[in-house]
Design brief:
48% helix; signal; 7 helices; Rossmann fold; membrane; transmembrane helix; UDP_glucos_trans; transmembrane; 11% strand
Length: 195
């Protein structure tokens, strides 16, 4: 429609393709998925302005963008130039389809045109083996770091082997007495009464 001066869109593939072929400038507000890429593609050619969706809360940002589109003729010129480039491609989409179809009919299925990634197993395709090795390495390194930190901050108290019983300073009637366990680190706290 020749009455259209500018277009505000979310940047979907359909609207950006139509805008590129019509040669009309646009304000693009991408929401998700491929819309950001589509919007920046039009902006790269100078035929549009990309806004963040959070900018829509501020009417002055939208007003300023519309004013730039209306006042700056370069947006309209760049959009028309992109349209002319698409219309005058060296090989049209129709010709490209016909040439590829004729090539396929003449030579049939060619193994060198079959992408190798199609034949990968699920483990190779999703890099599960690499992820497992990396996760194992992270876990081992984390375990080693935790063990080193625990060793550095561990408080060791050694009890000399020549004495089997020690009285506590705060409780003179209590004593540590060695028990009959084989490990020297196992001690029990007994109440010791002097007669």
């Amino acid at each position: 429609d020749p009455r259209l001066t500018a277009f505000i869109t979310h940047g979907g593939l359909g609207s950006t393709t139509e805008l590129a072929h019509l040669g009309k400038p646009a304000i693009l507000v991408p929401i998700f998925a491929d819309q950001t890429r589509n919007a920046h593609m039009l902006a790269k050619h100078g035929g549009g302005i990309v806004l963040n969706k959070a900018d829509l809360e501020h009417p002055q940002v939208l007003r300023e963008s519309l004013r730039r589109i209306f006042d700056d003729a370069s947006f309209s010129q760049n959009a028309k130039r992109l349209s002319e480039m698409l219309i005058n491609q060296p090989i049209s989409a129709r010709q490209l389809l016909i040439r590829h179809s004729e090539f396929a009919a003449k030579f049939g299925r060619l193994p060198n045109l079959d992408p190798y990634g199609r034949h990968l197993s699920m483990i190779e395709y999703y890099l599960i083996d690499i992820v497992l090795v990396a996760a194992s390495a992270v876990l081992v390194i984390g375990f080693v770091v935790v063990m080193i930190v625990r060793r550095c901050f561990a408080v060791k108290t050694k009890i000399p082997k020549n004495r089997a019983s020690y009285e506590c300073d705060s409780h003179p009637s209590a004593a540590l007495v060695a028990t009959g366990f084989p490990s020297s680190s196992l001690w029990q706290f007994y109440e010791h009464r002097n007669p």
